[in-house]
Design goal:
Layout: E1 7-9, H1 10-15, H2 17-27, E2 31-35, E3 38-43, H3 46-70, H4 77-88
Parallel strand pairs: 1-2
Antiparallel strand pairs: 2-3
Length: 93
């Protein structure tokens, strides 16, 4: 959190929604919304949100790959390429 502007009570958000959205979209910094003094939500711009979703997707793929390696569920690279060439009808000539 960079400043007091990044933490706002819900009452402020209700009264100044357009201003807060403009701030979020301009700065690309999240705004933490508080209720009764506790952080309850985070507002982010759509570009940042989409980047976060993509990053999480990549992290999930990496975690699955690491799990497959740990379980020995792997195929040698040469076997993968040989299967692909066979399926596609590609000769080594």
């Amino acid at each position: 959190m960079n400043s007091k502007e990044d933490i706002r009570p819900i009452s402020y958000i209700k009264a100044h929604a357009a201003e807060v959205l403009a701030q979020v979209n301009e700065t690309h910094r999240p705004v933490y919304v508080t209720q009764n003094g506790e952080a309850k939500a985070v507002l982010v711009d759509t570009e940042t949100f989409e980047k976060m979703k993509k990053a999480l997707g990549l992290l999930k793929l990496l975690a699955q790959g690491e799990r497959n390696i740990a379980e020995g569920n792997v195929i040698a690279q040469e076997d993968v390429f040989a299967t692909m060439e066979r399926e596609l009808g590609i000769d080594d000539e």
